[in-house]
Inverse folding.
């Protein structure tokens, strides 16, 4: 198949344009924005349709392309394709491909190439994709992708079976737990009934004991309460009151320190609080500080008075300060040294330039002599040698020794060249090489000489500037001496600004006067007004008065503390007096109590001992009376507001209830003895059993759910096995396709790879299983093609696409290549182009490129079956 021409009626930026294509190699070149990629996409769209939306027309809604295609059978097919409503047939089917396999093999664009170069396994993935689209509408990979086993369904079926089995186990556990809990609830009810019998029997025994005690106490007391100790109790109250008063009476403490009378004398001796300030006021401190600051600033400013006095005008002084430059002499010395160094460098560069130029002239003459034998050449060289020798001697006599040495060396070279010059080919090649080298050296030496001349001119200019600055400085120094002023910039500037200094000094003196007046006003307001004293003396005198008043105020400040101490002393003395009076009253009460109980004593310890002896006998009487009262209280408690008959009735009712409880316990006689602690949980266990009975799961229903889940799992497992069998058959088919394609790719790579890589890689291998491509270097080292350099990977990818197109197509299929040499160097680019030209002998190839090297190659190598189209940028 061959494409005669393509017409873009409305495609991207193209509008009603036709691109004729040669039967061999068509090279389409152009800079960016010249629509190369658009033409590449237009050719593919004309053959197969389905272009990218990025190529929709820039203007209008029409989107149409057309093409003229010739087949090997001689048939000419005209394709008119409306891309908005594409109904035209797929032309690539005429060569045994379809639009997918054509795009994967015969059509290579920039995006595909960049994907191959950017991705780590891009080459392998693209090769698999191209091999998988061999003449079909789908691929094995796509079928395998669609033929996904129902893994999720299998997982769900297994999960449902596990859930059903879990539910069955849970139902059985709940049923067993229900039976166990029912037995436990009956045991708890039995324990509660037996515990009720035992507890009520204990209550009945206690009630019988109460009735017996009641009869005993009634027989002891009858209806009369026991007699008390009324007279003795009154005496006990008197003794207890005396003891309480004695224990509560405080012990008078002994006071130390000055008495109240002494403190009153000290308080009367303290001075009164002074009138007036005891420290310098803040306002006075502020104005005093301002006055001190103003005085210091004025004094310091007066010390900077411009000197010496002069009659020169300020502009003259400022001009002299501007013209003074003490560093001008140093700069002149440095500039002179730079000039000497630049002159020496210029002499050396001139000698080198003369020497290299002579050598270049001699070498050029030698080339001419060898190229065209001339009997006069040797004489000319010898004469040139003599002339340059004479020039060298003259330079030596003028003390230019370095230049003379260079010229003499050139004379020696010219003489030797004249002596040995002859015209054969090997000498001519050597002479040409030497002449080129010498010419280059001469050019470089002339450049160095130019740089040396420029540096010398710059150095002399800097020296002139420095000399002029020194001259101006010397003139300014002379003028300063004539005016009687020092030749110093800072002094001249101060003298020029003398009027400003005097005005500023007057302002400072005025500020001192204002602050002094303010200080005197403040001191006068505080009673210090003496015009004969200076401000600092007045401040010192006022500060001394403040210190005296401060000491007096400090002494007067002790008055409140001393008054408080006097009040505290008076209170303490009153407290001691009250404590002594209270202790005396308590002692009188003790004496009265001892007299009342019939005892005697004077000292407090004797009185307390007598009371203690009386209390020991009283305690025995009290215990006996207490026992009687307790027994009577017990009797009243047993009666509890009732009578003995009421207690008998209660005892009879208790015997009847005991009989009922024993009858209820007989219902659980068959139960084994259980822990009585279960009785408390009888009600809660009964409620739990009732609740479990309402929510108890059905064991038969759970068994039926397990059977249903098992059947579903069996069905899904059978489906998975069927899908797995189909996947194995499809994988085997894919491996068969790979085993057919891999040898064809290896043969093609072995033939073409050495040509396009300039012999660097000499062999190739393609793995039939994974279509992994490896190449062998000239050093017998194998490498993964995806790990090669960008240029090499690009070339291998292009060769594989050409091999696939040749292997898969039923007849010659055109190749559409867009910028496939961008990563190759010049040598490999030309090798790749030579290979494409060789392949174009039996197939049509359309190459889009933007490199100037491709255009240059096309102009040199394209023949009658080929054509070069150079596109121009489209209007924006």
């Amino acid at each position: 198949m061959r494409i005669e021409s393509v017409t873009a009626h409305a495609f991207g930026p193209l509008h009603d344009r036709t691109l004729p294509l040669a039967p061999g190699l068509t090279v389409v070149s152009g800079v960016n924005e010249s629509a190369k990629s658009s033409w590449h996409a237009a050719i593919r769209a004309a053959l197969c349709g389905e272009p990218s939306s990025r190529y929709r027309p820039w203007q209008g809604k029409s989107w149409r392309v057309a093409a003229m295609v010739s087949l090997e059978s001689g048939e000419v097919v005209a394709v008119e394709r409306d891309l908005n409503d594409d109904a035209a047939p797929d032309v690539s089917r005429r060569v045994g491909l379809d639009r997918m396999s054509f795009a994967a093999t015969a059509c290579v664009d920039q995006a595909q190439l960049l994907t191959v170069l950017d991705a780590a396994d891009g080459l392998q993935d693209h090769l698999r994709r191209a091999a998988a689209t061999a003449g079909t509408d789908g691929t094995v990979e796509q079928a395998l992708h669609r033929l996904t086993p129902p893994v999720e369904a299998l997982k769900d079926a297994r999960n449902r079976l596990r859930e059903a089995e879990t539910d069955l186990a849970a139902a059985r556990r709940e049923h067993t737990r229900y039976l166990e809990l029912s037995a436990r609830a009956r045991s708890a009810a039995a324990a509660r009934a037996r515990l009720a019998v035992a507890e009520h029997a204990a209550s009945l025994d206690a009630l019988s004991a109460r009735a017996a005690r009641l009869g005993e106490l009634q027989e002891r007391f009858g209806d009369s309460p026991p007699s008390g100790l009324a007279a003795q109790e009154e005496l006990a109250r008197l003794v207890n009151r005396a003891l309480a008063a004695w224990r509560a009476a405080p012990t008078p403490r002994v006071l130390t320190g000055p008495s109240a009378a002494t403190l009153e004398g000290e308080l009367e001796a303290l001075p009164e609080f002074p009138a007036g300030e005891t420290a310098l006021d803040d306002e006075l401190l502020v104005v005093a500080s301002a006055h001190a600051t103003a005085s210091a600033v004025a004094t310091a400013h007066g010390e900077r008075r411009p000197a010496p006095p002069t009659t020169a005008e300020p502009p003259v002084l400022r001009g002299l300060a501007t013209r003074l430059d003490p560093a001008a002499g140093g700069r002149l010395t440095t500039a002179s040294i730079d000039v000497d160094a630049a002159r020496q460098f210029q002499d050396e560069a001139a000698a080198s330039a003369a020497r290299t130029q002579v050598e270049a002239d001699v070498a050029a003459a030698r080339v001419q002599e060898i190229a065209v034998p001339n009997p006069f050449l040797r004489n000319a060289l010898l004469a040139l040698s003599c002339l340059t020798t004479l020039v060298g001697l003259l330079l030596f006599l003028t003390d230019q020794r370095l230049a003379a040495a260079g010229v003499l060396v050139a004379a020696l070279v010219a003489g030797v060249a004249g002596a040995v010059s002859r015209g054969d080919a090997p000498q001519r090649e050597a002479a040409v090489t030497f002449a080129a080298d010498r010419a280059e050296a001469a050019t470089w030496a002339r450049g160095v000489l130019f740089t040396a001349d420029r540096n010398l001119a710059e150095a002399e200019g800097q020296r002139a500037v420095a000399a002029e600055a020194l001259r101006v400085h010397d003139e300014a120094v002379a003028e300063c001496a004539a005016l009687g002023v020092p030749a110093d910039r800072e002094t001249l500037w101060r003298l020029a600004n003398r009027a400003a200094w005097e005005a500023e000094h007057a302002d400072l003196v005025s500020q001192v006067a204002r602050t002094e007046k303010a200080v005197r006003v403040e001191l006068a307001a505080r009673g210090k007004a003496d015009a004969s004293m200076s401000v600092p003396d007045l401040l010192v005198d006022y500060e001394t008065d403040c210190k005296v008043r401060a000491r007096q105020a400090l002494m007067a400040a002790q008055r409140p503390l001393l008054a408080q101490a006097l009040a505290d002393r008076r209170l303490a003395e009153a407290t001691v007096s009250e404590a002594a009076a209270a202790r005396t009253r308590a002692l009188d009460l003790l004496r009265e109590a001892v007299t009342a109980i019939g005892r005697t004593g004077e000292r407090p310890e004797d009185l307390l001992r007598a009371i203690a002896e009386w209390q020991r006998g009283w305690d025995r009487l009290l215990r006996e009376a207490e026992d009687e009262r307790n027994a009577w209280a017990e009797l009243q408690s047993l009666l509890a507001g009732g009578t003995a008959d009421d207690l008998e009735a209660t005892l009879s009712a208790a015997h009847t209830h005991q009989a009922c409880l024993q009858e209820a316990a007989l219902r659980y006689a068959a139960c084994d003895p259980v822990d009585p602690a279960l009785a408390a949980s009888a009600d809660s266990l009964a409620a739990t059993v009732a609740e479990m009975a309402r929510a108890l799961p059905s064991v038969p229903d759970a068994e039926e759910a397990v059977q249903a889940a098992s059947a579903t799992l069996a069905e899904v497992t059978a489906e998975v096995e069927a899908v797995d069998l189909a996947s194995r058959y499809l994988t085997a088919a894919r491996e068969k396709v790979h085993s057919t394609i891999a040898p064809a790719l290896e043969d093609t790579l072995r033939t073409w790879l050495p040509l396009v890589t300039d012999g660097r890689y000499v062999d190739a291998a393609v793995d039939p299983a994974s279509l992994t491509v490896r190449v062998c270097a000239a050093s017998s080292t194998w490498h993964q093609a995806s790990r090669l350099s960008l240029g090499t990977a690009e070339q291998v990818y292009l060769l594989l696409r050409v091999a696939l197109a040749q292997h898969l197509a039923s007849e010659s299929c055109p190749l559409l290549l867009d910028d496939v040499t961008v990563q190759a160097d010049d040598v490999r680019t030309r090798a790749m182009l030579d290979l494409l030209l060789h392949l174009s002998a039996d197939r049509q190839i359309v190459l889009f490129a933007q490199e100037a090297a491709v255009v240059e190659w096309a102009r040199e190598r394209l023949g009658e079956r080929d054509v070069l189209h150079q596109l121009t940028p489209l209007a924006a």
Remarks:
- DSSP finds 25 helices and twelve strands in the chain.
- Confidence is low (pLDDT under 50) at residues 113-124, 133-139.
- The radius of gyration is 66 Å.
- The first helix runs from residue 36 to 48.
